[in-house]
């Protein structure tokens, strides 16, 4: 069942922009998107076997609008994507290399995420999904957690928490997702840290060889 929950959460992760608009708050964005999920997936089933690239490109277009890929990627890079590390650099060349690495990793991370999860979206068969309203006193000045309950074979629903934050243009963008306590951002951060050790601190090699952890890896960690 965890695989189904993971797929449901990733659908909202990937398709959040279906309802994205600057006048909508974090709850409305997630809730409206949830209502659109089945329609989006059903439409894709009619053509994906013959034209899978069309579906992947559609996922890419949607995610580009709503996921703050660069902030997400810099968080995964840890020290090597942090503002403090950038400010500690002494030369223009070092700072230029920092910016170039962030851009390269962001692009690799985005491509891997989209390609990996676009393949898994069609595996969701449609459980009942409920988005919980935000508390009346929630602070909208920073990151906001929007909870989604997904009902399956057990009495207690599976919980998914989306972290969204408002950008300077007023739109709410996704920064992270936690599925039943499984923090996807932290998984990727641990993966990046392990790669830094594997390549003896060569960040360029880490970026060049980056692949998004498959669902099987996340399921294995969830079972621990």
Spell out the blueprint of helices and strands.
Blueprint: H1 2-15, H2 26-45, H3 52-66, H4 69-77, H5 83-88, H6 92-121, E1 128-131, E2 144-151, E3 158-166, E4 172-179, E5 182-183, H7 184-198, H8 203-208, H9 215-222
Antiparallel strand pairs: 1-2, 2-3, 3-4, 4-5
What does this molecule look like?
With 224 residues, the protein is an alpha+beta fold. The chain has nine helices and five strands, in the order ααααααβββββααα. It has helices at residues 2-15, 26-45, 52-66, 69-77, 83-88, 92-121, 184-198, 203-208, 215-222; strands spanning 128-131, 144-151, 158-166, 172-179, 182-183. A hairpin with a 5-residue loop joins strand 3 and strand 4. Helix 4 (69-77) packs across helix 7 (184-198).
* Alpha plus pi helix count: 9
Indicate the multimeric state: single chain
Q: Could you tell me the strand content as a percent range?
A: 5-15%
Radius of gyration: 18 Å
Q: Biggest sheet, in brief? A: 5 strands, antiparallel
Question: How many strand segments?
Answer: 5
Straight-line N-to-C gap? 16 Å
* Strand adjacency order, main sheet: 1-2-3-4-5
Q: Roughly what is the average pLDDT, rounded to an integer?
A: 80
Give the helix level as a range of percent: 40-55%
Instruction: Report low-confidence residues grouped into runs of 5 or more.
Output: 17-22
Which structural class do you get from the secondary structure elements? alpha+beta
What pattern of helices and strands is seen along the backbone?
Answer: HHHHHHEEEEEHHH
Basic shape: globular
